[in-house]
Automatic annotation (TrEMBL):
Top EC class, one word: transferase
Name of the protein in question: Class I SAM-dependent methyltransferase
The organism's place on the tree of life at top rank: Bacteria
PROSITE patterns the UniProt entry points to: SAM_OMT_I
EC number: 2.1.1.-
GO BP term, pick one: methylation
Length: 196
């Protein structure tokens, strides 16, 4: 359950991330956190789906991971998250420890494609994409394999970076058995349902 205390801590963490990003010019250093309304949306989707296995591509400092982890903890689920930066993985570990989620979330540093390739067929209930958008289209065949029937994929930045997401969105919309829509939440959430 998201108590007022947890929501206040999440709001403070987001504000700290926004302040940090404003004072750093290099993209790879920035936190690039999702918006709080996007976090609530992810939490709602995960809770209502009772997602037991959640995969996140793009951990950063763990802000989005906390929302996913809190939802997973409520119904004894697990989150596996991967980021290419060891520095950001370390930041995320501290964030998750502060929220008591070290036993719910597994952190990895490495290549997301390898993580996808290693996942079992139809084993993921919810997947959150918030990383290198140029790679998403290449991930799609693996995503279709590992996503459970009735599973969801949520991609951030569908509106803020529409051009960078266009090829991935086109690939999804051309795939039979998937229902997808973009919602004007945060920076735009492209939500995909495996409707098989």
């Amino acid at each position: 359950m998201l108590t007022s205390s947890i929501l206040q801590r999440l709001q403070q963490l987001w504000q700290e991330g926004e302040h940090f990003d404003a004072s750093h010019s290099e993209r790879r250093e920035k936190r690039l956190n999702i918006t709080p309304d996007t976090g609530k949306f992810l939490y709602q989707l995960s809770r209502s789906r009772r997602a037991r296995t959640v995969l996140e591509i793009g951990t950063s400092n763990g802000f989005s991971t906390v929302w996913l982890g809190l939802a997973a903890k409520a119904h004894k689920g697990r989150v596996l998250t991967v980021d290419s930066s060891a520095h950001k993985t370390a930041l995320a570990r501290a964030t998750l420890d502060a929220f008591g989620l070290h036993d719910v979330v597994s952190l990895r540093t490495g290549d997301a494609f390898s993580l996808l390739a290693d996942a079992n067929d139809e084993s993921v209930d919810l997947l959150f994409l918030d990383a290198d958008r140029a790679r998403y289209q290449g991930y799609w065949p693996e995503i279709t394999r590992i996503l459970a029937p009735g599973g969801l994929v949520v991609m951030d930045n569908a509106l803020s970076h529409a051009g960078e997401c266009a090829d991935f969105i086109a690939a999804v919309l051309a795939t039979h058995g998937y229902l997808a829509e973009t919602y004007p939440i945060g920076k735009g959430q492209f939500v995909i349902l495996k409707d098989l």
